[in-house]
Amino acid sequence: MTSEAPAIARPTQDGSRVPFELFTRQDVFDREQETIFRGPVWNYVALEAEIPQPCDFKTSFVGDTPIIVSRAEDGSLHAFVNRCAHRGATVQRQACGNVRQHRCVYHQWAYNARGELVGVPYRRGVAGMGGYAADFDPKEHGLQKLRVASHKGVIFATFSPGTAPLEDYLDTPLIEAIDRLFSRPVKVLGHMRQRVRGNWKLYAENTRDPYHAALLHGFHATFGLYRTNQKRKGGADRARAHSTGVTYGDDWRQASMGNVEQDKVVAGYSLADPSLLEGRPDFNDGVTVQITSVFPGLVVQQIMNTLATRQIRPKAPDDFELYWTYFGYQDDDAEMTNTRLKQANLVGPAGLISMEDSEAIELIQRAIVRDGREDSFLEFGGLNADLDKDRTGEATIRAFWRYYAGLMGPSPIAAEP
Amino acid sequence: MIAATSEAYGAICALEYRYARLLDDDRLEEWPNLFVERGVYKVIPRENLSRDPPLAIFFCDSRAMMQDRVRSLREANVYNLHYSRHVVSNIEVLSDRNGTFEVAACYTVYQTDLEGQTRLFGVGQYRDVIALADDELRFREKIAVCDTFNIPNLLAIPL
Ligand code: FES
Ligand SMILES: [Fe+2]
Description:
The structure holds two protein chains of two kinds. By secondary structure, chain A is of the alpha+beta class. Chain A contains nine helices and 19 strands. Chain B is α+β, with helices and mostly antiparallel strands. Chain B is globular, with a radius of gyration of 15 Å. The interface between A and B is large, with 44 and 36 residues.
């Protein structure tokens, strides 16, 4: 007799109450891998600028599945699972590189830049012993492929044949947001990684949460760089899976992120070395901050001159990696590159305006271990998920949970036979 | 040729140990004074070293900027409550050009939370340039190259 885990609670329909067990249970995590990350979504996996040349590759993840993102000899993009079709070993052990063949070290099966099996040692056997049957077809033993689509050099992959075309999935406001940052050729400046002892959805919530910005993050207020009256504007796709928002600053240096009444008390210090916030706008639209969250695990940011994608890589119910790809433009001069490298202080695991986020997430994860049926309370700004009316409250998070619940189905973990 | 006198080596070790102790004793305000005024401090993930210039996750190119960082840690930032322990070892003088020393060392940093539980936070290498300034040896440059570039949670206290 097998004992089944009890069916789990689900978010309320309006997305305003979320049971904590959604952040802690292994069966929820496993279901998410199947239903969401391998479901009808486009997962961000890499930038084309990271694999510009034929046969360039980069290892990445879709959910917790390791994959290889590759550019074939003819320039086309491919993604396949980094798990040998023979006995399951990791095929490509490097983070990135340029190879014509991905060769598994275990028995030397070799795959080309499209993930197709092109080499099997002793396929015909040795001295009449071993080898594979005559009908062994290498075509049936390639690496498991994902569908790939790239928009302006931002590469997405999906396991599902049913995923809508990428442009439909993202929808116009998101495409416009991505186009704004990716209309010029980009150049990758490096990566930042942090490993957070928390559930991946807590980070997805965090990037959709303007409520916390000026309350948790104190840098701007402390150094007199924050004003409450900054103009904000946002948008979302039809399905409300994603969101994007910009903040306009009348002063370039007011790269603030929120807009609520209760600021942290302004201490009135000023920077002893203001060169940190010098720089020049990349665009002429007055936007100092643009944050775009694409379901399930991508954030694209511009904060002043810092440009980055953030990929949420779930590892376990209480563990994810946050992987930052930090970039500039190919036509940046040396001064602009220096500006970007210096402003990198603002973001990432040691970021002056970002280090608090992962700590907030760990604080939640630590406290909810036992009370899975208790709820996270998300009623700031009402119960709506109307992103046009509410750019300062929790509407965007409620929208996330509504979309999440829709994908997970009526009973996220039905008792299975 | 012997690269550095034992007297110089002793002074360099003393600087490295003092650096670690100030951070571990929460004397962050004194940390910038171990650098020259235009001193450079960076934390660079090892995987970024192949790039030129490499992206750092912590970047100061003046003592004033380090002071800003400390003020931010004191007044603005929220980070995991912990004690840190910096262990500096394998201190090696790579070159001595008229009293400007190029130094390599290893660091191991542990964090202990308020329940008294310790975990390894990270290991890596210091690549330092040390010279005499205002009668004391100070860092012109200190680059912490992280082997542990997947930062557990966040990095607040300098490495
Ligand atoms: S497991 Fe890869 S070749 Fe055998
Ligand atoms: Fe935040």
